[in-house]
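Hello forum,

I keep getting stuck at the same step: I have a sequence, I want structure tokens, and every attempt I make locally crashes halfway through. Rather than fight my setup again tonight, could one of you with a working pipeline run this one for me? It's a single chain of 453 residues.
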Amino acid sequence: MGLLRLSDVNVPEHNAPLAASYRCVRGCAGHYDVFSVIYRCPHCGGLLEVAHDEALLARSRDGSAWRAQFDSRRGVSGVWAKQDWVLPQIEPERIVTLGEGWTPLLPLPRLASDLGIDDLWIKQCGISHTGSFKDLGMTVLVSAVNHIIGLGKTPVRAVACASTGDTSAALAAYGAAAGIPTIVFLPKGKITTAQLIQPIAHGARVLALDTDFDGCMRIVQEVTQDNSIYLANSMNSLRVEGQKTAGIEIVQQLHWEAPDWIVLPSGNLGNISALAKGLAMAKVLGLIDRAPRLAAAQAQRANPLYLAYRRGFDRLEPVTAGSTAASAIRIGNPVSYEKAVRALRDFGGVVEQASEDELADACALADRRGLFADPHTGVALAVARKLAAQGVIQPGQRVVVISTAHGLKFSEFKVGYHEGKLADVDSRLRNPPVELPADGATVKDAIRRWLDG
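Reply #2:
Ran it on my machine without issues. Output:
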């Protein structure tokens, strides 16, 4: 496989130029420049999405040729390997990449047996530069801002986000790589030390607010009404363009065969809509012949999508998100609700929730099978287990669970589990260190008793 050169990826191999634009998710007329500072439809206030000319993409090459092209682009970035479907018109020298994408897709038969699933795969999106899937979207957003600043037509001076940890880490890292100032709004005392230190280390201006994520989100939207500060949260659909490549990458790693199910943690709901968008493009353009079903996994203490699903998606009723180990999805008023509902309806989707005990137990099982699962992945694993027990996931079906972050970001959660100190968690697989005197005979006896069970 040849290495992808960023100077080549945006040169189309057909006559008509490719270009992406914004359009309203609610169907309002009008298209808008993706390099303008705009986040909502000026007519109805709905979110925008990035639109691609799928007819032009289909004319340029068929599904087999697209598969061959994507398979030939190995190296540098899994996102920009698919630039034709992401942001084709950006100048190559404006692209800011830190080697995102190409994360492992692992078959785990022993964990599958634990969860009552016949064929289980884990997409390790946390094996990324900043330790989460947020890198996939941030490379696109920061590259676009880099392009906007380079054009010199807008007053953008900095990029800002509200975050429960991972978004701030990704924004700060990519901003640092581009030389663009970044500002992050974090809920004070509600993220891990590892997540807090990442933006600090990258030189971001970190503002710890005495509120929750939803409160931070309100403030960042107020601050970014001034176009000198660019909004980097997932309501900005440039993020979705990068994150959608995870779905394409999954089917590519399965030799262009879609799994039966993809299960993923769901909080602000940008990721599930992104996943659906990438898979939909892959099907429409002939790279896959069928689409998987989607399962959105929510923490029981932050479950507005689950509650809406139980009511047939009649409306979103925001909740006050409670304390959960799955802090990155501790969101009570998800910005991308409309997009997520559309994705779930289009992909035969379901929504399920997991308690603190269920997510912690699923993490511990995954760790015993060789992973080091973060609590959000624990939510998705617990939901996959419940759906299999309910018969929703059927015997013989292939299931991909998306692991969204690296477990090392949540070492306090891991320690608390094995010390038996997590509230509302039974710690069935607790494995604390054994303290012994420095005596050979005592150590040998302890090892023998452990091996004998």
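The CA atoms of residues 78 and 101 lie 4 Å apart. If your local run keeps crashing, start a new thread with the error log.
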